[in-house]
Amino acid sequence: MLELVDRCFPYATEEMMGWWLCYQRPLMHVARLDGRVAGFVHVQARPESDTLWINILAVTEEFRHRGIARQLLAHCERLAAEWGLGRLGLQCHEDNASALRLYALQGHAQVGEDFHADAGGRYIVHDKALPASAIAAAVRTPAADPRWRCIAHRLIYRAWTRRRARTTR
User: Fold this and answer.
1) In the chain, what are the domain boundaries?
2) Cross-referenced CDD domains, in alphabetical order (predicted)?
3) Phi/psi of residue 67, nearest 5 degrees
């Protein structure tokens, strides 16, 4: 998985990678095929805009064109419904034609553009409204809420680092 994350963050520092892998791990959802990591998606709840934002969706090259990205998008739709969010949002680099085609086929509308000089240029912003029936049918539980998962993971990580620091003295 580290190789895939490293490919998706080519401009990231080691400190930034540590932050993503330690503190953002509860928001990363991994797809496995034949016991190997086939891809992952990193999501972020944005309740102020009623959106589940997809920060990164990546599939390893050997597993492309097998429906992994579609399954990850479907998983994101289920997560949004569970968390009570009515929309999916994401950005895609303008040169990524296969991803742009996939998002269009899955019902994501292009709603704007964004420019990131440090990340390599122009991105197309996509949005998809989820059916109200899916959101009403989903049950929101504290365990599914991303904020609780992040808090729990941070507490475990801090306890582990303190214990590790005591044993190395």
Assistant:
1) 2-167
2) NAT_SF
3) 85, 10
pLDDT tens digit string along 69-95? 999 999 999 999 888 899 999 998 888
Give the pLDDT confidence of 82-129 residue by residue, as tens digits: 888 999 999 988 888 999 999 999 999 999 998 876 666 888 999 999
The pairing of strands 51-59 and 36-46 is antiparallel
Provide φ and ψ at 81, rounded to 5°. -65, -45
Say what the alpha-carbon torsion angle 110, 16, 23, 8 is, to the nearest 10 degrees: 40
The Cα 128–Cα 21 span in angstroms is: 27
Q: What SS3 class is residue 73?
A: helix
Rounded to whole angstroms, the Cα distance separating 1 from 161 reads 22
The answer to whether 33 and 66 are in contact (CB under 8 A) is yes
What span, in angstroms and rounded, lies between the C-alpha atoms of 85 and 7? 29
In residues, how long is the chain?
169
3-state SS class at 28: strand
pTM of structure: 0.71
Query: Is residue 109 a contact partner of residue 129, using CB atoms and an 8 Å limit?
Result: no
> Could you report how far apart the first and last alpha carbons of the chain are, in Å?
31
Strands (E), 61-103: 87-93
